[in-house]
Amino acid sequence: MTSYLIFVLKRFGQFLLVVFLGVTITFFVTHLTPIDPVEESIGAITQMGQSDPNAIELMRQSLRELYGMEGSIWQQYLHFWLRLATGDLGPSLSAFPTPVSTIILRSLPWTIGLMTVSTLITFVLGNAIGALAGYYRKDMVLKAVSLVFIALLPIPYYILAFVLLIVFGYLWPVLPINGGYEMNANLDLSFALVLDILKHSILPALSLIMVGAGSWLIGMRALVSNIITEDYVVFAELGGVPKRKILRSYIARNAMVPQFTGLAMSLGAIFNGTVITEIVFGYPGIGNLLIEAVHAGDYSLVLGLSALSIVGVAAAVFIIDILSPLIDPRIKVE
């Protein structure tokens, strides 16, 4: 037990180091860009007719304080960490004076919903077909299904997204192709709203599932193909154990350990969003938000989204590390 606690503490230290280095690099990259959010705001205001030099100077000082741009770059860096520790990322440049955290929280549920559901469906579908195809290697139906998913794998998901958009949006217009819900929809929680949101998520999710299932299928099929040659599987078959039980209890259970590691990584990466898919379908997630922030030069929002992504992926890796010895006893913590 003591060795496991030491192991967890070491991994937690690595987690903190990864977050610190990732956020630090993002901070300096965004602050070394030629865009000055204060001057951008001043320029937008002066175009609307405000030209009093004293008022503009006072506004410049207030905006520098709001954006955390007072002092040297190192003072700004320290101030940034102090604000980040309290969850304060400052106001957004493109949607001033709305806080960055508020804007992110508006888009985050859309991305989490889309990515979580599509990732889990992809995981289950790919591994189920992969396990069956790896064990029943002569089944022609499984070979054909596997071939379809493997053929879709090298296709960029945004290309498939465009194909789905054309097919189901224009040639056979049965599904909505833009947004997260109908325009002017009543956003009070109701069955109709939930159904509308689900309809709008079908095409983005389908583009991710059709492309992503192939990688899980290939990985699971390879793992099963190796496991079926193990002695305990051969002995079980010779002992007359039913094939379904062998596949479920002897093969799939052992093959799923590395697959669950990949699943945790995929779930951690949902905070990255799916930039191109969200743009193609106009989906209101953080991927779409990130592109809008880059185009607007809103580096406070870019920094907030980047920090969220870094923490999400690092947390997923940390959870994998501390749970792996509990799931698989072959992994040693010393």
Automatic annotation (TrEMBL):
It comes from the Bacteria. One of its GO terms (biological process) is transmembrane transport. Keywords: Cell membrane, Membrane, Transmembrane, Transmembrane helix, Transport. The chain crosses the membrane at residues 12-32, 110-135, 147-171, 191-218, 260-281, 301-323. It holds the Pfam family BPD_transp_1. Residues 108-324 form the ABC transmembrane type-1 domain. The keyword Acetylation does not apply. It is a multi-pass membrane protein. CDD domains: TM_PBP2. Its main location: membrane. It is found in: Cell membrane. GO terms for cellular component: plasma membrane. Belongs to the binding-protein-dependent transport system permease family. This is ABC transporter permease.
